[in-house]
Write a structure and sequence with these properties.
Low-confidence stretches: 14-60
Number of helices: 3
Number of strands: 12
Radius of gyration: 16 Å
Helix content: 10-25%
Biased composition (Basic residues): 24-33
Distance between the termini: 29 Å
Strand order of the largest sheet: 1-9-6-5-4-3
Region (Disordered): 1-64, 152-172
């Protein structure tokens, strides 16, 4: 069986950090990360007949929300918001799609590290596993450190999207999604990353920005 399709690593840049304001601005429906003990109620994705990428969520994330989300993803002890976080948030804001639907982080291995592993260096080297939920589909994403870069391996269930844009503050690269819903993106710059899934019969679906 052929392996997952691979992104062209040469497509990175220039991004909004290098040329601020580039990209497509607009409304991006946002569901976001579940806070402990919080329920989204009617906005939560379900297993009913909602079509892939059906618009749900309380509205688009503004710049302040993006800064808060990226800061929270760096961990509870990250301290004052850095210029790096602010620049990444501005880049994310500039790359919004007016027709995109935001997915929701369902599970994240960074929030529940393996039992007995406390060394921060070991945790930093371990792959990060995330599951993003959308109405009617899930995206499982593995982020692995390779030197000072990252490799992303994703699988959409059920298959449907035909390509995935791997977006970073430095630019984006497009990976074809194979018939099994799998894709690979090597040589991704370290830092915030978001995946935008393109579906031929529905609006594109974007993941929240997470730190790779």
């Amino acid at each position: 069986m052929p392996g997952p399709s691979t992104a062209d690593a040469g497509e990175w840049g220039p991004g909004p950090v290098a040329a601020e304001g580039a990209g497509r601005r607009g409304k991006e429906r946002h569901i976001g990360r579940k806070a402990p003990g919080m329920s989204h109620g009617d906005d939560a994705p379900g297993t009913g007949s909602a079509p892939y990428g059906a618009e749900r969520g309380p509205g688009e994330p503004d710049l302040d929300r993006l800064i808060a989300d990226l800061q929270a993803d760096r961990g509870p002890c990250s301290g004052t918001v850095s210029d790096e976080v602010r620049a990444a948030a501005r880049a994310a804001y500039a790359m919004r799609r007016d027709d995109a639907v935001m997915s929701e982080v369902g599970t994240d291995s960074a929030e529940s590290p393996p039992a007995g592993v406390r060394d921060s260096a070991l945790l930093a080297e371990a792959p990060r596993y995330l599951r993003f939920d959308t109405p009617g589909a899930t995206l499982d994403l593995e982020i692995t450190a390779v030197g000072d870069r990252r490799t992303l391996v994703g699988r959409v269930d059920p298959p449907g999207p035909t390509s995935a844009d791997i977006r970073t503050p430095h630019g984006s690269a497009r990976a074809p999604v194979d018939a099994d819903g799998a894709f690979v993106a090597p040589d991704v710059p370290t830092g915030p990353v978001s995946v935008l899934l393109h579906h031929p019969a529905a609006p594109p679906v974007a993941t929240p920005w997470v730190t790779a």
